[in-house]
Structure formats: structure tokens, C-alpha cells
Amino acid sequence: MSTPPASGTPLHGGRLIARRLKDHGVRKLFTLSGGHLFSIYDGCLSEDIDIVDVRHEQTAAFAAEGWAKVTREPGVAALTAGPGVTNGMSALGSAQANHSPMVVLAGRAPEMRWGQGSLQEIDHVPFVAPLTKSATTATSTAGIPALVDDALRVAIEPHSGPTFVDFPLDHVFMEAP
């Protein structure tokens, strides 16, 4: 367990995500390891959130939905960009139908290179929006905490259901207070 940084200390975007998850009582993150998510994993390790690494993104997403169904707390999955997100869409549909409070955090190609054919570059929001209560993309590192707070809040509001936030690679590796 690491010593928490002082308030106002700059943290990378993945640590900002994990800090907000922890403050909302999230204890587990279900995922299949993907490079777009490394800063989130680093943040979860620093914030003592268990990372449950599975063998397919669909399993990670369904595990998060199962966690939500059993605990009625938000189940959180982290899915890597492109096919990682599309592999989780069946679980989003299930969470929508079951009103399961679920949050999907996704990796995304860097904003500064958008449109240049980066690895797994795809705009996820139009795909997942019909299956979620909210779907958004982080536009800055400083805005990450509010997006995570909103996703968790909306997921548990009646009728509870899934939410989605994707994080461009450059934003989760940069720092903000």
C-alpha cells in the first residue's frame, strides 16, 4: 500500500480515475489487460482496488454486470480500445435490460493523434450510446474526476443501468491536480 499523495498534488489520469472509484466505494475492477488501460491499472494498484484480470473482454464486462446484480453497487469494467469495447457490448445490453448499475471505462486512441489511424482508433460512443444511460469521452485530464463521478452517479440513479466513459491515451497518462 502506497502513501496517498497530498491534496492538490498532480496525479496522472489513471490515478485520478482510481481515486474517484475508491471514493465511491468501488473495490474491484474487471478487465482484460490492454495497453490503453495501463495507467488505470497503475492507479487501481495505488488506491488498493482489486484488479480481476480475465481472458476475454466479454467476461470482464459480464463479471462487472454480475457484480452489480449481486451487490447492487456499480460493477466496473475496464475495456481496451476498439475490439475490447465491442466485445463488451453484449454485457452492456444485459445490464441495460436488467437495470444493473454498471460502469465501463474504456481506453481510446490519443486525442492529439485522432484521425491519423492510431492503434484501435474508433469512436466508441455512437456504438455504446443506445445501450447506456450515458456515454462520453474525456476531453482533458483535469476533467476526468467529474466524468467518473457522473458515470457512477448516473449508473445508480433509478432506473439504474450501465454508463460508459472512454479515456484518450494522452489524457490518462498526463497529470492534473
Give me a quick take on this structure.
This protein is α/β, with parallel strands linked by helices and 177 residues long. It has eight helices and eight strands; from the N terminus they run E-H-E-H-E-H-E-H-H-E-H-E-H-E-H-E. A six-stranded parallel beta sheet has the order 3-2-4-5-7-6, sandwiched between helices.
Q: Can you lay out the helices and strands and say which pair or pack?
A:
Layout: E1 11-12, H1 13-23, E2 28-31, H2 38-46, E3 50-53, H3 57-71, E4 75-79, H4 83-87, H5 89-98, E5 102-108, H6 125-128, E6 134-137, H7 144-156, E7 162-168, H8 169-173, E8 175-176
Parallel strand pairs: 2-3, 2-4, 4-5, 5-7, 6-7
Antiparallel strand pairs: 1-8
Tell me about this structure:
There is one protein chain. The two termini are 21 Å apart. It is built from eight helices and eight strands; from the N terminus they run βαβαβαβααβαβαβαβ. The strands form two sheets. A six-stranded parallel beta sheet has the order 3-2-4-5-7-6, with helices on both faces. With 177 residues, it is α/β, with parallel strands linked by helices.
